[in-house]
Amino acid sequence: MKNITLTKTPIGEGKESCLNSKKIVLSLAAISFLASCANAAPTPEIKTYDEISKNTKASSASVYAPQARINTTVSSSINNQINISDSGVHTIIIEAGGTLGSIGNNNKIIYAHASGNNTLTLANLTNKGTINGKVAVEHDRGFTGTITVNTFENTGQVNGQIYMGVWGGQGTLTVDQFDNSGTIASSDKGVFFEGGANNKSTINNFNNTGVISSTNKEAVQFNYTDVKTITNNGNIKSEGHRGISINNSSVQTLNNSGTIQTSNQDVKNWDTQAIYIGNSTIQTFINSKNGILKGDGRKDPGGPNGAMFASSGVNLSGSTITNFDNSGILSGRVGINISSTTIDNFKNTGTIEGTSGAKQLSGTVFIQSWGTSSSTIKNFENTGLIKNQNGNAIFIGDGNKIETLKNSGTIEAGNNGITFYAFDTNKKPVNIGKITIESGGVIKAGNDAIHIDGSKNGIEGEGIEVKEGGRLEGGNAGIYIGGGKQVNTSINVSGTIQGGNGGIINTGTIGKEGQEKQEYGITIENEGLIASAKGSGILNTDNGIIYGNIFNKSNNNLSLKNDSDATITSGIKNEGSGTIFVNNQGTIDKDNSGNHLVNSGSGSIVIEDWLVSTDKETGKLDTVVVGGNNTDNVKVDNITVDQGNADLDGIEDINNIISGVKPGNIGNIGTNGGGEIDLIYDPSTGKIHKRFDLSASISGATFRSLISTTSRRSTFIDNVMGNSMQTFALASSSKSQSIAMSEKGNLYADASDYIKSDLNNGSYGSNKEHSLFILPYTSSQNVELSLNEESKGHTKGTIIGYSTLKDSGIYGMYAGYEDTKMGSTYFDINNRTYYAGLKYFNTLFTTSKGQEVYIKAQGKAALIKNDLTKKIGNNEAKAEPNSYAYGVNTALGMNFISNKDIFSPEIGLAYEGGYTEAFSMKDTIGQATVKGGERTYANYLNLFSTKTSFTWFRDWLPNLKTSVELGAKFNINPKVEAEARFGNIKVSDEFYLPRIQKFVSTSFIVPVNEAFYFSLNYNGMFDKDGNTHTGFAQFNYLW
After folding, report:
1. Segment holding 202, helix H or strand E
2. What was the pLDDT predicted at 734?
3. Which first-to-last residue range defines the signal peptide (predicted)?
4. Does the model's pTM come out above 0.70?
């Protein structure tokens, strides 16, 4: 039977006669309503009236009598709206068998609204049955009164939105208790509380143990509300937007032990966050052990907005959180985004997971600024798991700060465990405060466990401590500090720091400048270990600075590399039982006791290599000083003396280089030059002897380059000029033979308009007397400049040649220019060459069998303007001497003609002379020369050589010919003598150029007509010191 009961009870105004009592009978489509009262009764009397007809439906229930408590009960199926608009006290109950509203109804089905300055109270709004439609507790326009909901309870099904709010005016709303153990499902917001900016609503207790869901918008939303407690033990889910959205509100306690999630696979959806808190204050945020906060969307972090709109478990924006405690599961593309938010205490004992695959711009815990407003976490403690399989675990944008970070749990990342990034919106440094890895704490990353880099505006920190049992592991480094970034105090290690390329890689600053007493830059204590799979445990590189010393108290070994521009300000100290392996190419200053190295424990120190620098003013060496009570366990594998400004006269004894080490524990002593100065150490006497090798000096490099380019140029010119001149000698031969023999040279020619005209018109006369070509060319060559190092370079040039036929032979002349650039580790040899020469060719006689015997000769000269650079580390010295090359050569050959083949053996004799001016190297960058300077004296070259070659020409078709030449040049006297001065020491030396040089030339020939022919060519030359490869395309013009 359909049953709705309404009861009105007057509030005492003295005794009233029943004859004067107000009798209200409302006919609600055959529903009876009776209001009655007892005289001056202080307690309400409730009477129930059943429907008269079971087949008649009630259409509405409305009460307007003021100061009356109205109880509305629905125990059957009612489709009409319950509309409450007076200022009384009301109770609405939907019984277990009751249904309010029809299926699919999206309109307001319960509408309680106050107006003016009235007071509306819902003492109890309970649903045990089904509500189809929206439940709205609100007000009319211009409201200044009060709305109170003492209790809202849903144990049944609500198919529509629950709205309780103040959307305008100056009125207020208070909800004492909101309980849901049933189901609230809506296509709009599921539950929506709203207040005003100046008249916030108040929610004392919000409790969900059931299901609240929305298909399109937020499942639960708080706007401008003050909330004491939000408790979820059930399921809150949105398929379109956020699970819970808290905006411009305050919450004393938010406690989740159920599931809050959002799921939407639209990559453009910006609102897939399980919980969003914007411009709000939260006293305590708890995600309990069984709590799940999951942002199941596809929106990744990216661009200038960072993770602001990424799918996340929790998104905090412009808010203040006193205590954030997660012991459950928090996940999303970003686990938690913290934008322009302050958190006093952040504690994770559960799991926070980020699933974004973006390597650089990703973070499980993503800390960023929104605009210029920074985020701060005062205390960050992790005893649980923070992970991101592909990206970063903890991401910190510029201008943000973590004051203290303690990790005794696990942080796992595919890229960096802790990383930094510059959005360039907040132009302030990142401050990472104090990072402590407690016992059992692990940061394990594919790249760097702690990556202190990425911010344009600087990164500062108060120190890093890895306690015993703690671990930092990175595929690249355990700790990486980028250039310009600073950790203000020491790094203390009692645990393990390990990386693929370095345990600690520093290109920035560790420690602080200007301290009265620089003590500990990096300290390794107890069982502490800093190690690398394939690099150094500590790598201080680029312009890295470590203020203080490296202090090892551990029993484990430590490898340390200090690169060329890096600095350690207070030495290295070993008091443990392990071994420190030191490779120093930069600056390691002395400690307060005047020692570079101190070994006082039972361990040892091994100097793998140490670059001993020199004083810029005096040239004296900065002697390595070793102290401590166990110097017997200090061993030296290699010491390298910096040649730059070195005072060679002051290097006489081993104590000039290193002191405090047993003589027998010292291995090799060398220099950082190209090998021109060698230091010989005698451990029996402790004396240092000097040996010089000019073949390894700038003079040796100059001669090797000069001979290489001169030989290449000579062979090239012999081919181009000699073959061009042979054209006239073979004029009586067949046309194809004549053209073929002119084509053993190779280059590229540009013809003038006059030549092009001849090419188009053709000239088929057989009497040619003149030949002309202009050829730009380029070559690639490898020459050994520094000893045992092949140096690559290029030559670009242009040659012009002319030949003419006379009765006495063929005469030719040529001139050219070329630019050569060669470089190596220790030397750069660049030069510009201007050359010219004369050629002569004549056929001596022809044998009875038709073989032609010919002779050719050449005279040549060249001016070479050198630009020489010597390099010692980052220092350079230069000189620009001139060289002069000259020479003559002659050759005798024979052409054997057999049908379409021509075979031409040839032998020759040559003289190559040269003169290079004396020059002194002048320091241009730093100091690359020894103290007192370096000078190479004038040098003369007088080299004789023989040459033999064999050429095969083949006439395949009238317009297709080939030519291949193989040959070798034999240097009769390859010895070169040189003299130089290093400081006050004068040196004479001799060295040998390659004795044999082999060459090969190939041509692919296409005759155009009698005046023009075109060929593609290759020329290669090879000796023990290098090789040259030249490719050419050539046009010859005859008239």
Report:
1. strand 201-208
2. 37
3. 1-40
4. yes
